[in-house]
Amino acid sequence: MGEADVIAVDHDLETPPYQQIVDQIRAAIERGSLAPGAALPTVRQLAGDLGVAPNTVARAYADLQAEGWLQSEGRRGTRVAEKTPAADRRARVHALEEAVAQFLAVLRHRGYTNDEIALVLARHPQGNPFKRR
Amino acid sequence: MDSWLADAMRLFYGAFLVGFGAVVLVGAARLNDIRRFFRRGERTPELEAALARRADLESLSPLPWRVGGAVAMLCGALVLTRVIGPIVGYALACASLALPLGWTFARLRNHGLRRAAVLAPRRPDAVLSRVWLVLGALAGLAPLITLRIPAYRLSGAIVTFAALVIWAAVVVVRDMPALLSGEDPECEMQIESRLRERRTLGLFGVMLGIPFAFFSLVGPLTARLGGAGSHPFTLLMLVAYLYVVAVWCASFMKLGVRVFRVKARGPVC
Which is higher by pLDDT, A98 or B89? Predict the structure, then answer.
């Protein structure tokens, strides 16, 4: 089980909890840590683990189903859709570009320069993601 | 009953309850220590750190155990001083230890600090099946057969109550939401899984054991009193209970019966 399979809800954020759940599940699917067809926890289990109301998780699942990320199989539970929006390479690249732009915007807002960001990424223990092997 | 046998039983059970209560009283903190579910060899620095985080999250108080231990000691003292009989003393001690257990896990179930979750379905039946939960509940009800004997009516009811409180704790632990901080998810999930498994199975074993010791006390007396054993329903309950205990023990000792499968110990994180 990878680290990417874990989601969390922060009640101090302005983003409502259901939206945080939606964003994190969508991100996990986009990253590929949730494969197509992978089973998700029941609404009750996820709500209990996150300490939120079952309606919050149900709404998040409903939104993700409406967007085509998840599919409900009735009593058998909820699974990642076999053909998700992320399966479209252009959409996947677009989502990544948006995520990187947000990430860089946050760092620049905190006063870091491009050089500083590049230096830290180059020295990062998980390896430089921009270095070609 | 022969007086020497009654005295021996009184002495044995009185001393046992005092000793048992003292162990619980002194070792209250150890009973809440989750590190005991992991061997020394398994405890890497990462695991120790994750266990410390988990212990912080659980923040279990030793106070209920201390109260339970003190009450068990008191019961033992009352048995030794002939204020109450050994069977009533045993029943009260069971209740005094079942209540802290139930309270502890009910509190853990309603813990308000849950914030992280793993995106994978959890299957409580993999730890202990619903069939065994039902069998466990029936086994917990078995002491009710002594309700037909006025001398054991009260103690039988108390032992049943204690067994059912622990049964409820089994259900709570088995179905409890995960408690993760999200700092080291993989390690925390391994801990979560181990704690759920060991606590569920351990509590279930205790629940089955409570009526067993009660029957071992009541049995000889019942036989001597001309017994309730002649009643078909009583016999059926007793045989069913013993069957459940036997199958459970056989599974525990890996004697070809598999009620549950304890995951092999190994590297955690």
Answer: B89
